Amino acid sequence: MANERPVYMGPRLKRLRRDLGLTQAHMAADLEISSSYVALLERNQRPLTADMLLRLARTYKMDMTELAGDGGAEFTARLQSVLKDPMFADIDLPPLDATDVATSYPGVTEALLRLYTAYREEQLALADHGVEARAADGAYDADASDPVGDPVAEARRFLAARRNSFPLLDDSAERLAQTFGVQGATGQEGIIGHLKARYNLRVRRLPSDVMMGSMRRLDRHRDELLIDDSLDAASQMFQLALQLSYLELRREIDTVLKEGSFATEAGERLTRKALASYSAAALLMPYSAFARAVEQRRYDVEALARQFGTSFEQTAHRLTTLQKPGQERVPFFFIRIDPAGNVSKRLDGAGFPFARHGGACPLWSVHQAFRTPRQIVTQWLELPDGQRFFSIARTVTAGGGAFGAQRVERAIALGCSAEHAGKLVYTRDQPDAASVAATPIGVTCRLCHRANCAARSAPPIGRQILPDDYVGSSAPFTFADV
């Protein structure tokens, strides 16, 4: 037709086909065209007409604007984000050049992005192997390092290499969330209604003794989703969203998971579990709405939790994921510990140098949060190299819900670098960051070389311990300057 405007979007069509798990022959059959024509379209040797766009939208149940939108914008944002790495600091890389590459050479751009992600994973793996080697040489306590093939370490490396940000899951979950409300009681009703309408699943809440230790169980035989009725409202909502993620976003989760390389099956399963939880959080706190809300409420975790009907921990966890290229917000790090100091979760999107093994610094307020349950404790932190961070810490409770039910208290800390702290409501009544006295902390005692720390539990690696025949110190260990 004369009014049709041809567009060339071969790389986007190829990516769509690949995301759908289709061959060119399969797509050709679906669209009732030849395989050779699909190949020509993907190589930009034929234009994609309005009629073909409409056929694609109808066949694969997609939004026309999603198909015809600016396909280079996402690649451009991702490439520009990668090029901010200090590794490229000495190279003149104008933003316009990145835009030209991403727009003109999407295949090359995707290859570069894959290489960079693989590089990040290998760097993290090398850091772990370096610690293991020192443990074997006796420089480290071997019990403090992760054994080779540790599934927890594998999952953490996968998340850290991608800064705990997965735009594909964010976008897919946001589209799904738009089909029903997600906030408060109405959101729960929306998910329940969707499970019934699409999967013929009835939601039943049962006592803990009937659930036999499970919070959620999908009974395919009876077409029922069973939920432990002792869970609080936020936890029940999350379990519903988690099951919906496994059912509705399985393909997207598998696509992201294929980007990783796992030495153990357990590591892959833990990562899959983390991605499903990410998708559930993205359903309850859709990226666009949540990103607007965090700025309006100045990252007030409690206020955000009330707005979205989520728990304090779920909300704090979601704040670490707001690094979608082109729509970034304050980058946060997150850690969760128990009263014994064991770290059960850590996520870094703010460049905080977590100890890859063992616990954190005892001077960090996250360890003192147990003294004031449910109260937010703020703290300025300064590392030995002068880096400054701002953190908030608070206890959270898991379990309980009935008399005699086991209850677990943990503390979580959420923080950002000093340059972003002014955007947080928690610094509203504080003076300029540069004039605030910060607590001097270390990454972990084995890697901290502060000489006069009374809280030290172990001497630093590579420093000679001095005798105390004549001089005693308030610090547990005294060591040579060099």
From TrEMBL:
Cross-referenced SUPFAM superfamilies: lambda repressor-like DNA-binding domains (SSF47413)
PANTHER family in UniProt: HTH-TYPE TRANSCRIPTIONAL REGULATOR (PTHR46797), HTH-TYPE TRANSCRIPTIONAL REGULATOR SUTR (PTHR46797:SF23)
Example GO molecular function: DNA-binding transcription factor activity
Family (UniProt): Belongs to the short-chain fatty acyl-CoA assimilation regulator (ScfR) family.
Keyword Metal-binding: no
Protein name: DUF2083 domain-containing protein
Keyword entries, A-Z: DNA-binding, Transcription, Transcription regulation
Domain named HTH cro/C1-type: residues: 13-67
Domain of life: Bacteria
InterPro entries linked: Cro/C1-type_HTH, HTH_RamB, IrrE_HExxH, Lambda_DNA-bd_dom_sf, ScfR_C, TransReg_Diox_bact_type
